[in-house]
Amino acid sequence: MKNVKIMFLGDVVGPCGTEYVCSNLRKIIEKEKIDFTIVNAENSAKGNGIDQETIDELIMKGADVITTGNHAFKKMNSFDLFENNSKVLRPANFPPEISGNGYGVFEGNGFSVLVINILGIVNMEPLACPFRTAENILKSCEGKYDISVIDMHAEATGEKYAFASYLDGKIGAVIGTHTHVQTADEHILPNGTAFITDVGMCGPKESALGVKPECIIRKLMTHTPVKFELSDNPCDMQGVIIEFDMTKKTPIGIKRFKI
Ligand SMILES: [Fe+2]
Question: Has residue 132 got a pLDDT over 90?
């Protein structure tokens, strides 16, 4: 079988980020001959979180799976949304009684992909151990998929690297999200796992994680509540493309991009 290319897009921020991704997604899928697309969309709705409208738009334009993170349940109707959309994942290390799935095996054209969504716990919510959660999922899905990708949604770079090292050779790719700044460390780890600390953001340029810098400056200088307004600057779309050799079912390269 021919090599498979998986594209992973960084956190989509706000309606402007969603619109920018939607207007470029088909073009890049065709140009790069992408076989499967994963998009972190936890900030894609107006005011953070996700909603049905942005999910529908992203899926219609070519997203195969949507992942989330610490803003997964920001909207009041998120519980129904995760229950009703099998292509949308919430972090797997939330308590088990919470609605939705933290992982799934999805069918591509002639191959299957295990996608896992995990939330880091350093400087974040004290959820279940990311390392053990991921390892248990890999064990429970053994033999049920061809290739695998984890969205590691975390704040601390050290935690992301340690997590990827722990799973090196057991998973196809560990892709970091959440910090919205694309890092230049994409590479294949010693035992064969593709890794990047943070894949970046699909949202406004010259902004503080998508927000107008003046809001963040005010927040940091006054230590009082401040309404975060989305920047109205033009957007970037940042991501990585991971290429898998399907005879060995292992990654042979990871390339980052920004358009
Ligand atoms: Fe996040």
Answer: yes
Q: pTM score > 0.85 for this model?
A: yes
Cα separation, 168 vs 194, in Å, equals 8
Domain range for 130 is: 4-203+236-258
Ligand 1 mean position, distance from CA 259 (Å)? 21
Whether residue 159 is contained in a domain is answered as yes
Q: How far is the CA of 103 from the centre of ligand 1 (A)?
A: 17
Residue 227 lies in a domain: no
Q: Give the whole-angstrom CA distance, residue 198 versus residue 11.
A: 10
The pLDDT tens digits of the residues spanning 76-126 come to 888 999 999 999 999 999 999 999 999 999 999 999 999 999 999 999 999
Give the residue numbers marked as catalytic: 71
Cα 42 to middle of ligand 1, angstroms: 7
CATH code for the domain of 18: 3.60.21.10
Q: How far is CA 21 from CA 17, 45, 118, 149, in A?
A: 6, 13, 23, 21
Query: What is the DSSP code (8-state) at residue 219?
Result: H
Say how many Å lie between the CA of residue 153 and the centre of ligand 1. Answer: 6
Averaged pLDDT, 176-193: 98
Total domains, the chain: 1
154 in a structural domain: yes
